[in-house]
């Protein structure tokens, strides 16, 4: 199947702004009897535009097996698929890219591992981190936590002024993450964000497809307000 993300060298089309509108980060906490592939499928059907596979408690073998399964789902729907933290695994399974934090490998090293065509996302919590990530070849930034969250134990709050300053400082797309839900997404309007990244507002919900539909509509409104 044709990949949507294959680009000529140097072209900045690895990561389209529209793809950043509703970014879903996986989490098995609320799986129940479902499979993650099924949940991700429902999220995409509802309008999710980007998937990050983030699984902190799987051993390497299970991680790779599951990541390959989710990659297939994303390929079928032509939705970008990145792996959290592990650039080597992203390369090994031909994911569309990797998302790395400030405690992970640098974007420069991720680029060396993955090559020119892959997406590299970086977490930034200050303007300095954002500018360095952009200089080092990041394709987009995740900024958070913009609200209180129970999903990431070591999340650190990022103030709204900082979100805005980061969006103004860089040219690459910036998305917000952390505690975002239908009730507060519109509070993020006016900061220059390209979209939102969510975990529990999708995967903890009984109807993931409907939750995605609601969040997509609100995210579009937030970005355009
Ligand atoms: C889109 C997005 N933004 C931020 C993060 C957080 O990354 P990081 O700081 O590396 O923390 P962990 O995800 O590894 O706990 C993210 N994953 N995605
Ligand atoms: C993966 C992640 N990173 C964060 C950060 O602040 O960098 S917060 C977070 C979890 C976001 O989960 P929820 O949408 O359920 O609040």
Automatic annotation (TrEMBL):
Gene3D superfamilies: Aldolase class I (3.20.20.70). This is Thiamine-phosphate synthase. Belongs to the thiamine-phosphate synthase family. 4-amino-2-methyl-5-(diphosphooxymethyl)pyrimidine binds at residues 52-56, 84, 123, 152. Its cofactor is Mg(2+). Residues 22-202 form the Thiamine phosphate synthase/TenI domain. Its EC number is 2.5.1.3. Binds 1 Mg(2+) ion per subunit. CDD domains: TMP_TenI. Mg(2+) binds at residues 85, 104. GO terms for cellular component: cytoplasm.
